[in-house]
Amino acid sequence: MTDWTTADIPSLSGKTAVVTGATGGLGYETAMALAGAGAIVILTGRNEAKGLRAIEGICERFPNALIAYEHLDLASLASVADFARRFAAGNEQLDLLVNNAGVMALPKRQQTEDGFEMQLGTNYLGHYALTARLLPQLRRARAARVVNLSSLAHRSGAINFDDLQAKHSYRPWRAYCQSKLAMLMFALELQRRSLAAGWGVMSLAAHPGYARTDLIPNGPGISSFQSRVSRWLQPFISQSAAEGALPTLLAATSPAAEPGGYYGPSGFYELKGPPVAARIMPQAKDFAVSAMLWDVSATLTGVSFDEIAAAA
Predict the structure, then answer these.
(1) CA-CA distances (angstroms) from residue 157 to 161, 185, 218?
(2) How far, in Å, CA of 206 to CA of 216, rounded?
(3) How many domains does the chain fold into?
(4) Residue 218 within any structural domain of the chain
(5) Which of 30, 38, 40, 306 lies in the 20 to 30 Å Cα band around 222?
(6) What's the distance, CA 300 to chain centroid?
């Protein structure tokens, strides 16, 4: 599996995939590869112009690609609900959901329209609500998968229930690490609950290592000095966005991917290299904290997996 590439993606003809944050970077490369393998791909984002450019780029490489753009703002629970309603109206099932969209290290605390800290709200809570709302379509598919994008940053993360929204003390990287730890814990908890409840949904996670996207060197939490250093080091410690998307694609499509698996690059510190099983830090395996985070997320978003499953 250490030499796994997009050439190893099986035919996805007839399967439907949703990729969040797919107008650029890792999401774009993920959508590109899925479309190239024959999937019907719905790429989502907040900017229609960027979405249409992304479709043009994918169709230039794969003229017969079955791909469409849909507006989705993960920082808005109303937008999440609206997208899920539109998707359900036009699609009986969903074979693959890639929860990719995210923001990183905002220098000043910002809030989503629902009052959540922006990184937690966009990177995690929006995806939690989206996955729950799409559960009926996922359950109708045969062997549906959900892939959550985590990060090496999860290694430094902690879930701070006493100040989950960082209202009392906000630090950009601490908030980012918490959100990415939450995404990994969500993936593992979803797999446990799917198995226990018989939902038939396979949940996995992935991280890109250090992929060359605009998220890091141009991110709002990066100083000009850090940006220059980052660009100088890139050839030695980073990989392209297309290479960074490989762990996600392996998790999303490979028959060898394990339920509850976590995938990332194989090189030094998992920064770059072909995709393999990645290291999961102990805090991500804390079942009690994962269960509490699940329940808190249901309360905050007003969306319950169990209620949606029961109503389907």
Answers:
(1) 13, 11, 22
(2) 17
(3) 1
(4) no
(5) 30
(6) 20
Mean of per-residue pLDDT scores for the chain: 93
Tell me the H-state helices in the chain: 25-36, 48-61, 77-90, 118-119, 126-133, 135-140, 172-197, 224-237, 241-244, 246-253, 287-301, 305-311
In angstroms, the CA 149 to CA 245 distance is 10
Kindly state the tokens that stand for 218: 């141009």
Which DSSP letter does residue 164 get? T
Residue 221 lies in a domain: no
Whole-model pTM: value is 0.94
Distance CA 99, CA 97 (A): 6
Instruction: Residue count of the chain, please give it.
Output: 312
Q: Which residues contact 64 (CB under 8 A, 6 or more apart)?
A: none
* Beta pairing partners, 262: 205
In sequence order, what are the residues at sequence separation of 6 or more whose Cβ sits closer than 8 angstroms to the Cβ of residue 38? 11, 12, 13, 14, 15, 66
In DSSP terms, which residues pair with 149 in a beta bridge? 206
Domain containing 276 equals: 6-210+241-300
pLDDT in tens, 54-78: 999 999 999 999 999 999 999 999 9
In a domain, residue 247? The reply is: yes
- The CATH number of the domain holding residue 34 is 3.40.50.720
pLDDT at 231: 58
Q: Which residues are part of the catalytic machinery?
A: 176
Task: Please report whether residue 62 resides in a domain.
Answer: yes
Q: What is the pLDDT of residue 237?
A: 62
